[in-house]
Amino acid sequence: MKATVIVDNIGNERIFGEWGLCIHIEYKGKNILLDTGASSLFIRNAEQLNISLKDIDFAVLSHAHYDHGNGMSDFFEINDKATFYLQEGCKENCYAKKWVFRKYIGLPQGVLAAYKDRIVYATDNFEICDGVSLIPHRTPHLEEIGKREGMYQKSSTGWIPDNFCHEQSLVLDTAEGLVVFNCCSHGGVINIIREVSEAYPGKTVAALIGGFHLYNKSQKEVRQLAREIQKTGIQYIYTGHCTGKKAFGWLHEELGDMIKQLEIGLEISNI
Asked: Which pLDDT tens digit goes with each residue over 37-73?
């Protein structure tokens, strides 16, 4: 397996960053695209990194927020073959609440209908191909997290706290163990590790890659999470995007060399 970060918050002198995430993955001869960032920036960055978007075999959306799916239409225009895998709960209905206002933070309006022939909705533990699966949330009461974070879904009956039924983990089975990608981990890092472990009884979760949504958390909360991560036995953590600079620093103080910072151009292999 080899994963290359195409879009993250942290760029460099020649490749720009944005509030979003996009990762290219090579696995057993397959080219996989995970998310498309918050704009068409992923196209330019992929060119800079010598990654051909036309050669992507299939794409995966981690969850239905704009900073991960705003480039979907651009991808479909560039690549005319790849299926895009979404969790079955994905709709254009995600909002963030601030005071009495609700701001739309979901996928581009109309994209699901416009490209319905290119989209497959994953259900249960969904195997895409040998060694590659999508795992949904099974932890109960995740709507409590949605309410706490001020994230809501607009339904036919009104506003409901987001239970992250649109979020999924992309799991690769490698010689080192299971490598899990979950790009914002809204459902909870520890919940995700447990959910994947339960989906693969007898296998070890070796690595978790993605954002942890800690930018708005206290030092106490972040350090407590780090101690809980240590108890899981996981070996490698690569995190960025919505984790935040301060939170990463606190995690690093607790976890040491097992945690690495995501940034554009970073290559992750030998897991």
From this structure: 999 999 999 999 999 999 999 999 999 999 999 999 9
Q: Which of 163, 87, 91, 89 is nearest to 125 (CA)?
A: 87
Locate tokens 């809980």: which residue?
228
- In single-letter form, the type of residue at position 95 comes to Y
| pLDDT beyond 90 at 271 | no
Residue 12's pLDDT band (cuts 50, 70, 90): confident
Q: How many domains does the chain have?
A: 1
Count helices and strands (H / E) in the chain. 8, 18
pLDDT tens per residue, range 109-132: 999 999 999 999 999 999 999 999
Residues with Cβ within 8 Å of residue 154, at least 6 apart in sequence: 93, 95, 102
d(CA 214, CA 119): 30
Cβ partners under 8 Å of residue 174, min gap 6 = 1, 131, 206, 271
Domain that holds residue 261: 2-269
Measured in residues, the chain has a length of 271
Give me the CATH number covering residue 81.
3.60.15.10
- In whole angstroms, what is the distance from residue 115 CA to residue 134 CA? 21
**Torsion region of 252: left, alpha or beta (phi above 0 gives left; psi -120 to 50 gives alpha):** alpha
